[in-house]
Design brief:
The longest helix is centred in the middle third of the chain and has 5 residues. About 5% of the residues lie in helices and about 40% in strands. The strands form four sheets. Strands 7, 9, 10, 12, 13 and 14 form a six-stranded mixed sheet that branches. Strands 1, 2, 3, 4 and 5 form a five-stranded antiparallel sheet that branches. The chain contains two helices and 17 strands. It has three domains: about 80 residues, no CATH class; about 110 residues, Immunoglobulin-like, CATH 2.60.40; about 45 residues, no CATH class. The radius of gyration is 29 Å and the shape is elongated.
C-alpha cells in the first residue's frame, strides 16, 4: 500500500499563506534517515525557492496522494524562524599589540615565542536584534576548549589576552570564539598558533657546509662564488616547518 502513495511536503508563511517552497518529495537529509514508510523529512534552507524572513512564522504541510489522484494534507503548528548571529573573523594576534591598543593593522601570527600569553582579536559577529555575548577558549583542536576553558565577554569587547599560561614547545593552539544570543549560537576558530621556545636548543638538528647536491657532509674546501649551507631538522620540528632540509647560499 505504501508504494501506491505519493508523499510530499511544502513550506508556507503563516501571515500570507504564500508558498516558500512548492511541494517536493520526501528527502533523507539532516537528522532524517531512510525508513519504510517514511516518518521524517528535512528541508535545506538554502534550497528554498524564497528566503525566510527572520522572526516570521512558517508552517510545513504534508500531502499524501493515492493512485486515483485523491490527496489528503496535514499541517504542522507554526514555527518562528530565528536569525543566527553573523559569523565573523577571528585572528591569533600578538598579545603585546592588543595590550598597547595598536590594533589598527591586524597581523595574524602562526608562531609565538611568548610562553605565558596568547592574544585573540575578532570582528563581524553581530545580530540585528539581540546583544551578543562572546565566549573564548583555547584548545588543542578547533572547536575544543581542553587547554583553557576561557572567559565571557560582552558585545563591547573585540579582543582578549589569555595570561599565565604554560604553553608547550612546538604545540599548536587554537582559540575558539562562540557568539551567543538569546536565540542561537555560532562559533569560529583561529587557524592556530605554535609556541617556539627560543631558550632551548633544537636537539637533533644537523648543519653542514657543502653544495646542495653533494649530500649531507662537510666540505673543507669550496671553489665557488657562494658560501653554501644546508641543515636538516628533526621530525618533531619538521612537522611545524615547510621543509625538513633547508638550503641557503650567500654570494661572496
Amino acid at each position: 500500500m505504501q508504494d501506491m502513495l505519493l508523499i510530499e511536503k511544502t513550506t508556507r508563511q503563516t501571515s500570507s499563506l504564500q508558498d516558500v517552497q512548492s511541494f517536493t518529495g520526501i528527502n533523507v537529509i539532516g537528522p532524517c534517515s531512510a525508513s519504510q514508510p517514511p516518518t521524517c523529512s528535512a528541508i535545506l534552507i538554502s534550497d528554498l525557492q524564497f528566503p525566510l524572513h527572520a522572526y516570521h512564522e512558517y508552517f510545513i504541510t504534508l500531502r499524501v496522494t493515492n493512485v486515483a489522484g485523491f490527496s489528503s494534507t496535514k499541517t504542522s503548528e507554526p514555527f518562528k524562524y530565528v536569525q543566527l548571529p553573523t559569523k565573523g573573523l577571528i585572528f591569533d594576534v600578538p598579545p603585546e599589540v592588543l595590550e598597547d591598543n595598536e590594533t589598527k593593522e591586524i597581523i595574524d601570527v602562526d608562531f609565538t615565542c611568548n610562553k605565558k600569553n596568547l592574544g585573540v582579536l575578532w570582528s563581524g559577529f553581530e545580530h540585528p536584534r539581540f546583544n551578543v555575548i562572546f565566549h573564548v577558549c583555547i584548545g588543542s583542536k578547533k572547536e575544543q576548549c581542553d587547554i583553557n576553558t576561557g572567559v565571557t565577554r560582552n558585545s563591547s569587547y573585540s579582543f582578549h589576552v589569555f595570561k599565565d599560561l604554560e604553553l608547550k614547545a612546538l604545540q599548536k593552539y587554537f582559540i575558539t570564539l562562540k557568539a551567543e544570543t538569546a536565540a542561537n549560537t555560532v562559533s569560529a576558530s583561529t587557524d592556530g598558533v605554535t609556541f617556539l621556545d627560543t631558550t632551548q636548543l633544537l636537539s637533533g638538528t644537523a648543519v653542514f657546509d657543502g653544495a646542495k647536491c653533494e649530500g649531507l657532509f662537510d666540505k673543507q674546501f669550496m671553489i665557488t662564488n657562494f658560501l653554501v649551507l644546508i641543515w636538516e631538522l628533526p621530525n618533531d620540528v619538521h612537522k611545524n616547518c615547510k621543509a625538513k632540509k633547508v638550503y641557503n647560499k650567500t654570494p661572496i
